């Protein structure tokens, strides 16, 4: 899993998304369905902030989700993403153990 996670992070855009999601209230506007820390940030907010098309944003987020670095929550027709801190901690531990 570590190699897949490192590959997922081998993109400036995905690294930036992960940094934004670390402190979502600082980087994204309020949203209708709840707290961005608890539920995540709507993909449309991520797409808008990154200045990319919805399909490109979805592709980047899907890569991060497959690597288990983010978790998705679906509410109605909207999808919200938040960091998977447990997986990130495990990845950091694995890196420390192997370097």
Q: What labels would you give this structure?
A:
99 residues; alpha+beta; Arc Repressor Mutant, subunit A; 3-stranded antiparallel sheet; Transcriptional regulatory protein
Mind explaining what this structure looks like?
Keywords: DNA-binding, Transcription, Transcription regulation. GO terms for molecular function: DNA binding; DNA-binding transcription factor activity. InterPro entries: ArsR-like_HTH, HTH_ArsR_DNA-bd_dom, HTH_MetalResp_TranReg, WH-like_DNA-bd_sf, WH_DNA-bd_sf. It comes from Salinisphaera shabanensis E1L3A. This protein is of the alpha+beta class. The chain has a single domain, classed as Orthogonal Bundle (Arc Repressor Mutant, subunit A), CATH 1.10.10. The chain contains six helices and three strands; from the N terminus they run αααβααββα. It has a three-stranded antiparallel β-sheet with strand order 1-3-2. The radius of gyration is 13 Å and the shape is globular.
Q: How would you summarize this macromolecular structure in one to three sentences?
A:
The protein is α+β, with helices and mostly antiparallel strands and 99 residues long.
SSE inventory with pairings:
Blueprint lengths: L1 H7 L3 H11 L1 H4 L13 E2 H8 L3 H13 L3 E6 L2 E6 L1 H14 L1
Antiparallel strand pairs: 1-3, 2-3
Any idea how many domains?
A: 1
CATH architecture: Orthogonal Bundle
Estimated radius of gyration: 13 Å
What is the string of helix and strand elements?
HHHEHHEEH
Q: Give me the secondary-structure category.
A: alpha+beta
The main sheet comes to:
3 strands, antiparallel
Helix content: 55-70%
Strand order within the widest beta sheet: 1-3-2
What is the end-to-end distance? 16 Å
CATH topology: Arc Repressor Mutant, subunit A
Give the tally of β-strands.
3
Total of helices: 6
Oligomer type: single chain
Instruction: Identify the CATH class.
Output: Mainly Alpha
- Full CATH superfamily name: Winged helix-like DNA-binding domain superfamily/Winged helix DNA-binding domain
Organism: Salinisphaera shabanensis E1L3A
Protein name: Transcriptional regulatory protein
Domain HTH arsR-type: 1-99
Keywords: DNA-binding, Transcription, Transcription regulation
């Amino acid at each position: 899993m570590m190699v897949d996670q490192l590959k997922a992070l081998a993109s400036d855009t995905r690294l930036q998304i992960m940094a934004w999601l670390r402190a979502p209230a600082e980087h994204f506007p309020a949203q209708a369905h709840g707290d961005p820390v608890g539920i995540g940030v709507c993909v449309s907010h991520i797409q808008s902030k990154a200045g990319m098309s919805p399909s490109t944003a979805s592709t980047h987020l899907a890569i991060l989700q497959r690597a288990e670095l983010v978790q998705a929550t679906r509410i109605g027709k909207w999808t919200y993403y938040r960091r998977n801190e447990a997986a990130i901690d495990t990845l950091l531990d694995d890196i420390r153990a192997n370097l």
